[in-house]
Give the backbone structure.
Amino acid sequence: MIYCASTHKGLTRPLSAMDFISLVMKRAHNCLLEWQIYALLIASYVAGVFYLNVESLIFRTGMAISLEYSFLVLSLASLLMITEMFASLPSSPKKKLVGENARPLPRSSIIVCAYLPNEAGILIPSIEHLVETIERPQEGIEIIIAYNTPYEMALERELEELSCRHAELKLFRVKESQSKAENLNFALTRATGEMVAIFDADHMPSGDCLKKAWHWLENGYDMVQGRNIIRNVNDNIITRLVGIEFDLIYAALHQSRYRLLTTAIFAGSNGYWKKRSLQELSFSNKTMTEDLDITLQAVLSGFKMAHDRTILSYELAPSRITDLWHQRKRWARGWLQVTIRYQLSLLRSTSLDFRQKAAWSILLSWREKCKILTILFFPFLVFSHASDKFGPEGDYAIFDLGLIVFLAMVFVSVCVSRTHQKMAIHWTAYALAAFLSVPYVLFQNCISVAAMIDQVAGKHRWVVTPRPSVPQFR
């Protein structure tokens, strides 16, 4: 049976003097097409960098300091990278949780959020996977499908037929919902399980995911994040790059940060919470990344969170460059919003130690600054090497050494990520990923700058990631 539910719409924020700049930017933003704005910015930026490189005496006198500073930054980044890679390697012998298996897996609620009609082609296969694959506790499970759609769909009748065959399946059309956050907040009011697992509509988790997650929650943790793996990784070069990127992020970086800092990030899907802990928080629709927002709420509340890369779930990656652009711009916009919202609170927090405050500040504020610095840095490097205006080539030796070390660490990081691979990806794809790492990072940083422009301009529209119907695994 399909239930309808209403959500409360947020009140419109009153116009204030502080909105003036955003209003002007928005008006200017609407006068030109998006690609024209970015083209103008890039053209003016390239012209400015070229002028400074060729003509500015002031810029020339600061070259030595700039190159030494760049070497220091690259060296520190390389050290941080290799530290994270070593920390992500499997420990031996494997540590066991104290009191593991002290209590059997209790009744659990699985929440799947769907944005229809965009995800209509993938929702039924994902639900069938859950029904057929997930290992049940003695007290059973419930699978809550919380979705929103602007109009009635034939898919809803298929869902109702499916729920008639599986009593543990509960369907809720969240009326007036415009976001995943609203769907999640409503679903939590209907969840009856002691543990809550959250998945996006394209996810297909491993059958033992609940059992592995409960080991953490039973031993004092409030949330554990699993590892997300790209299942359409062999579609094309874009999905391969994203798949290797996910191997690096979920199997290496997130795991090492948990080991070094005893903190984790809820990634929006394949995350497992104690229901009573999650009910103390609320998913916010004021940011485009409700997962990161609730992560920071949990961090500031002193919650214990872990990352376990053995809890697997398989998802879909965008297969077109335009889809990847829109997805990453939405993510970048959300990270920026969360940074603005929580950075000062993190620094003032009494529940975090110095290491954790520093790590979160790097992930938030410093990360945003690096997006801009990176796209300024590499064109400067190209123009500088191409020009003889700054003296002998030896002036660049110290910088070139730092760059070589940094790129070597990137290659090592990609190699480490291959040791954790779960999908069949040929080694040549990893070699290509290492070779394309710099342009790929520049591409993503350009997306982040575009997201910053949208944020300043007050542009609220975002583009959903298209979800075509695909086979379960490829």
Notes: The mean pLDDT is 77. The CA atoms of residues 361 and 367 lie 8 Å apart. The chain is about 55% helix and 10% strand.
